[in-house]
Design brief:
- The chain is an alpha/beta fold.
- 37% of the residues lie in helices and 21% in strands.
- Helix 13 (429-437) links the parallel strand 18 (418-421) and strand 19.
- Helix 29 (768-777) packs across helix 30 (789-801).
- The longest helix is centred in the C-terminal third of the chain and has 20 residues, at 560-579.
- It is elongated.
Length: 807
């Protein structure tokens, strides 16, 4: 009986009118404990059985807040302080006045006792003398589907001891009237007199000894619903949340998460992670510089990434909407925990059917690049600011350039045309708030405040994929609005040509039939940058400068070839994921020898050819002894995409295959590297760009699953015209009778053999009559660039409307 009585007393304390255990809360308790605490309780009660681990704790009620005000006579004084303010300096003065009122106020004895008793109970439950806790503010109007309230109130970490806890609680109450919180509530129409503050007291996860971060259960830039984004940094999570570091970024393809044999991580990028927030001493934290090893290592393992991703999906399924989640890893136990979850408030509100596209003309030189946020473009004059306290000097419509932002910057951000920061990731404060405001932002540029100057005219472009750019001068910007549901249906497939993985998710709303040509040259040239033989034959690299470049790029990879395979696999996977389960035809590398030589370390391994266009390229290269080891890396990457990640919609396509014998050699090399035609549904296509592909169509059709006509090379070789020659440009025309005869011929002969034929190239976009010819000739698919998709789709529909419908 003596053991039972204390437990009964504690239960009474934990469910008093001032204190509620988190496990007793649910989403219905928002008015009582705010959205943040209600959400924690909802997850503890309902998702623990699904494995989602939320640390224990308790919350103060709204009634505790109102009684605190009444015990100190604060209601009238707060209303008076806020009644005459406007904006700017007056807002700041009002905020300081109210917060001073809280600083002088005393806790009613009953409330202080309830908080202390609940803290003692939590410490006893966790078998600690005085457990260290996180103390978070949870306003009763926050974390609603239409407003995020991200960072508007304060959070205090590593709070230990009863006195420190009460001081943190007092500061939480006062933070309800920070100027940023006042301004935010007024903007969203919340009455200060009706918003209370609940305090969440939760066991600290010792992420100071490991790492922490955030995850979004939707793509934060495009609203693509099938990927999940995780950002991670070393130490406590505040640096990631506030955007003071460049975190790791992991992207997971959600539809394949239920298959335990797969690893559907489609992107892993190591961030600089310049510093980490750790415990300093009792109830304090401090930032320290990370080590070189920490900067070059991923915070999470693949299994941990997948665990968090599955938890994220479980949380989204429970709430029935995309979510913004904070997580932490305990460095003492190695366990993962969810410490907060709120609704995602940007893309979940957007009209799903509308796609905005932006086209830039007459851009100046590129000044800076960083992470792209917002998907649009803005122009204006630079205003470099070091502190939000200088907000009265900011001109409406200027472009805010600063090191980073936090909630204090919000009033200025609302007046900006765009935002550019030195630091921050996709889930930083600058990124989250910019999305909610509909502003383009380029974050994490590294040096914007040094490179740009006040008054300088610039163009901020976030419409070119997940890398944003800052251009010199005012570019011409053309904006279009596309309604995909209004596009006509066609029998002929209209597919996309893509090269940049960053662009893939941007176009997911287009009703394309897949990707007819994914060029991996962009991934190799712009993302990998190193010649594959410089990685397979690292010991042969003689140039010290080249060795240093490669060492820097491959930092974090014990095996330098794994750098190539990993980066290429993730680049291809991002394109394939955007269109899964529709086919994505990936052309293996089609660099010419001069282009390969321009890669880092490439000059040492490439021949000097007089005519690279007709030289060592395509299938000949893959089958050769001197390049076989390099091509094996491409094969490993494609095998990883299909068999490890699980994106079996990837089709492999071989370019510039001159003879059937060469085709046999390449198919053998593919098989040696785990890519066996027909196994696990693998299809292998061939580019039809050499006249021999048409002349021997039946022989090639017996070896491959499809043809893709490369109209540029085919026209060049049929007419004997250098496609890059300015002098011969008038002769280069895909509509020439000789070219059209071969195209018609290969379509008929391939169809007779039961093999599909597509065409990828610019001609259908440029010439409506050429698109009509292809439709009349019976082409199975056309592949065009995304900006041409709408017009070509309409041209194909018009052409089909005049033809008899097939039986």
């Amino acid at each position: 009986m003596e053991r039972i009585l204390p437990a009964l007393i504690r239960r009474k304390i934990m469910n008093s009118r001032y204190i509620v255990d988190l496990s007793e809360l649910s989403a219905r308790d928002t008015n009582r404990v705010g959205g943040k605490n209600a959400s924690l309780g909802e997850m503890i009660r309902n998702l623990r059985s699904a494995g989602v681990d939320v640390p224990p704790g308790f919350a103060t009620t709204a009634e505790a807040y109102w009684d605190f005000l009444d015990a100190n006579g604060l209601r009238a004084e707060i209303e008076s302080a806020l009644s005459h303010r406007t904006t700017g300096a007056a807002l700041n003065r009002a905020s300081k006045t109210v917060r001073r009122l809280f600083a002088r106020a005393q806790f009613p004895p009953e409330l202080a006792s309830a908080i202390v008793d609940a803290y003692r109970d939590l410490s006893a439950k966790l078998q600690r003398d005085q457990v260290d806790v996180a103390v978070r503010s949870s306003a009763t109007a926050e974390d609603l589907p239409s407003a995020s309230f991200a960072g508007q109130q304060e959070t205090f970490l590593n709070v230990e001891g009863e006195e420190a806890l009460l001081e943190a609680c007092r500061a939480c109450f006062a933070s309800l009237f920070a100027d940023r919180a006042i301004a935010y509530r007024e903007e969203h129409g919340f009455d200060h007199r009706k918003v209370a503050l609940s305090i969440g007291v939760q066991q600290m996860v010792r992420s100071d000894k490991a790492g922490a971060g955030v995850l979004f259960t939707i793509d934060t830039e495009t609203g693509f619903p099938n990927t999940l984004l995780i950002n991670a940094g070393w130490g406590l999570g505040e640096n990631v949340v506030r955007g003071t570091i460049e975190p790791d970024q992991y992207v997971v393809f959600k539809p394949l998460l239920d298959r335990p044999e797969l690893c559907p991580i489609i992107d892993k990028t190591i961030g600089q992670k310049q510093r980490k927030l750790v415990y300093a001493n009792r109830s304090a934290t401090r930032n320290v510089t990370t080590t070189r090893a920490e900067r070059h290592a991923f915070v999470l393992s693949n299994s941990e990434i997948l665990t968090l991703a599955r938890w994220g999906c479980t949380i989204q399924a429970h709430y029935g909407r995309p979510m913004d989640v904070e997580w932490a890893k305990d460095g003492e136990t190695g366990s993962l925990h969810i410490v907060q979850a709120r609704p995602e408030t940007v893309h979940s509100r957007e009209a799903a059917g509308v796609l905005h596209t932006y086209k830039l003309d007459q851009t100046g030189r590129r000044l800076l690049s960083g992470l792209s946020v917002g998907g649009s473009v803005a122009t204006g004059q630079v205003r470099i600011m070091r502190s939000p306290s200088d907000g009265n000097t900011f001109e409406d419509g200027a472009i805010l350039v600063t090191e980073m932002t936090d909630p204090d910057w919000v009033p200025i951000m609302k007046r900006a045309a765009a935002i550019v920061t030195d630091h921050g990731g996709r889930t930083s404060h600058a990124a989250i708030v910019s999305r909610e405001m509909g502003l383009p932002a380029v974050v994490g540029t590294g040096s914007a405040t040094e490179v740009l100057r006040n008054g300088q005219e610039i163009t901020v472009s976030c419409a070119e994929g997940d890398e944003g750019h800052v251009y010199e001068g005012i570019a011409h910007v053309e904006k279009q609005e596309v309604h995909p549901e209004q596009l006509p249906a066609t029998r002929t497939q209209v597919m996309l040509i893509l090269a940049n993985p960053a662009e893939a998710l941007r176009w997911w709303r287009l009703p394309a039939d897949g990707v007819g040509l994914a060029r991996i040259e962009f991934i190799i040239g712009d993302l990998i940058k190193v010649h594959p033989l410089a990685l397979t034959h690292w010991e042969q690299i003689r140039d010290r400068a080249v060795r240093k470049q490669i060492d820097e790029l491959t930092a974090g990879y014990a095996d330098k070839t794994e750098y190539f395979v990993d980066r290429l696999a993730h680049g291809v996977a991002r394109i394939a994921a955007a269109w899964h389960p529709k086919p994505v035809i990936v052309r293996t590398s089609d660099f010419k020898s001069n282009e390969y030589a321009n890669l880092i370390g490439g000059a040492q391994f490439e021949p000097d050819e007089e005519n690279p266009m007709l030289g060592f390229r395509g299938a000949t290269r893959y089958a050769s002894e001197q390049f076989r080891a390099a091509f094996a890396l491409e094969c490993r990457a494609l095998h990883r995409v299909r068999d490890d990640i699980g994106l079996t919609n990837v089709v492999v396509m071989i370019p510039f295959c001159r003879t059937p014998a060469e085709a046999d050699q390449v198919l053998d090399v593919l098989a040696e590297n785990g890519l066996v035609r027909g196994v696990n549904g693998l299809q292998v296509y061939v580019m039809c760009e050499v006249p021999s592909n048409v002349i021997l169509a039946e022989a090639f059709a017996s070896r491959f699953d499809g043809f893709s006509i490369g109209s540029n090379d085919l026209t060049q070789l049929v007419l004997g015209v250098d496609r890059d020659s300015t002098m011969l440009a008038p002769l280069f025309d895909e509509r020439d009778e000789a070219v059209m005869t071969l195209i018609r011929d290969v379509i008929q002969r391939a169809h007779h053999h039961g093999t599909e034929v597509g065409l990828c190239g610019q001609a259908p976009s440029d010439y409506p009559e050429f698109a009509r010819f292809l439709v009349e000739a019976g082409i199975d698919s056309l592949s065009v660039t995304p900006d041409s998709f709408v017009s070509v789709k309409e041209q194909v529909a018009a052409a089909e409307s005049t033809l008899p419908h097939p039986a």
